[in-house]
Design brief:
Helices cover about 35% and strands about 20% of the residues. It is an alpha/beta fold. The protein has a domain at about 65-285: Type I PLP-dependent aspartate aminotransferase-like (Major domain) (Aspartate Aminotransferase, domain 2, 3-Layer(aba) Sandwich). Strand 1 and strand 2 form a beta hairpin. It binds pyridoxal-5'-phosphate. Pyridoxal-5'-phosphate binds next to helix 4.
């Protein structure tokens, strides 16, 4: 059997990783400024993470969601406290798309409605409803087009009023900061007005923090910059440093009913152990403070690279915009300078999503390499 060939691959085979570095099968060391699509939060093979998963595996790795699992309760308590979202309840699943799928389903259960408002250039995943609210027709199959979705440009509040005024909208879904789309984000004023119009009309506001959450933006969740309270928050990527997991944080205004949501693997012992060790490390190692410190250093230093036209995003969720397509530059960064970076829908944008443990010296190394390649 061969693999179903859906991914264009770089010719690199990582076999080992530690902190912000990855080694390939030939022993070449790479600086990882991409964290495998923003997944690595506390650093590759973090010792606490490795111990926590190893010890858990020796005890019990999995049982179904029909038994008590104190690790889920511990994870929910720690997440509520660290994210300052103690008035939310947690539903655990296995991926980002699944988090959004459940969030959208819940909004539809709660409101009895089915139309969703989403935004231009959004990315919310590849399952049924999640892909339907993703602004990319190329990844929507005919079966996904049954969903009722309206895409609006970011920061056009009158259009949001207009759609919600039609009284058939279950939810508005929006990324804290757009990831795959290219690091655009709503203004504080826009987020506040969206929240207010949603609240007034019984429409649920879903904040997709799958990429922008877990400290990456310099706050636990990127929306916290805008002083708003969503109804549902979705998380995944950085949540367990590479172990598959997704989380739906649901305002305690909404009551759970048995059978409303469910999953076989979601919230299993191993995923919880991994996710708890991530929260402990974020707290104990003060990683959010590190994100802010490194971010400010980055902003200062990148000014010396004149070919960078614009820096987008916040914290360690950054995009460098050039006036040329960055495909070749990314290849040179990997093969000439041994640095992983990311791309986005915006072909002119280089995406930077390193582990939250990265240090200024490593950013300096990248900026130097960038200068050499652009000279
Ligand atoms: C903002 C956002 N939402 C949802 C997803 C989907 O997550 P997953 O690939 O884990 O299903 C992604 C993945 O890139 C994402 O960036």
């Amino acid at each position: 059997m061969k693999l179903f060939d859906v991914y264009p691959l770089y010719n690199v085979t990582p076999v080992k990783a530690e902190g912000v570095y990855v080694w390939d099968d030939k022993g070449t060391k790479y600086l990882d400024l991409y964290g495998g699509h923003g997944v690595i939060s506390i650093g590759h093979s973090h010792p606490k993470y490795v111990d926590s998963l190893t010890n858990q595996l020796k005890e019990i790795g999995f049982y179904s969601n029909s038994i008590q699992n104190p690790l889920q309760v511990e994870l929910a308590q720690k997440l509520g406290k660290l994210s300052d979202c103690e008035n939310f309840n947690l539903f655990l699943c296995n991926s980002g798309a699944e988090s959004n799928e459940n969030a959208l389903k819940l909004a539809s259960f709660v409101t009895g409605k089915s139309r969703i408002v989403s935004f231009t250039n959004s990315f919310h995943g590849r399952t049924s409803a999640a892909v339907a609210v993703t602004d990319n027709m190329n990844i929507n199959a005919p079966i996904n087009l049954q969903q009722k979705v309206t895409f609006l440009p970011l920061n056009e509040i009158d259009l949001v009023y207009h759609e919600i005024g039609k009284k058939d909208v279950a939810a508005v879904i929006i990324e804290g900061i757009q990831g795959v789309g290219g690091l655009d984000e709503g203004t504080s004023e826009f987020f506040k007005e969206v929240q207010s119009v949603c609240n007034k009309n019984g429409v649920l506001l879903i904040l997709d923090e799958i990429q922008s959450g877990y400290g990456r933006s310099g706050q636990f969740f990127a929306f916290q910059q805008h002083n708003i309270q969503p109804d549902i928050i979705t998380t995944a990527k950085g949540m367990a440093n590479g172990f598959p997991i997704g989380g739906v944080l649901i305002s305690n205004k909404y009551e759970a009913k048995y059978g409303m949501l469910g999953t076989t693997f979601g919230g299993n012992h191993l995923a919880c152990a991994a996710a708890i060790s991530v929260l402990d490390s974020i707290e104990q190692e003060k990683l959010i403070a590190n994100v802010n410190e490194v971010y400010h250093y980055f902003l200062e230093e990148i000014k010396s690279v004149s070919k960078v036209k614009k820096v987008k995003g916040r914290g360690l969720m950054l995009g460098l915009e050039f006036d040329f397509e960055v495909g070749e530059l990314r290849k040179k960064l990997i093969f000439d300078k041994n640095i992983f970076t990311g791309g986005s829908n915006n072909k002119y944008l280089l995406r930077i999503l390193p582990p939250l443990t990265i240090k200024k010296e490593q950013i300096a190394f990248f900026i130097n390499a960038l200068k050499e390649l652009l000279a």
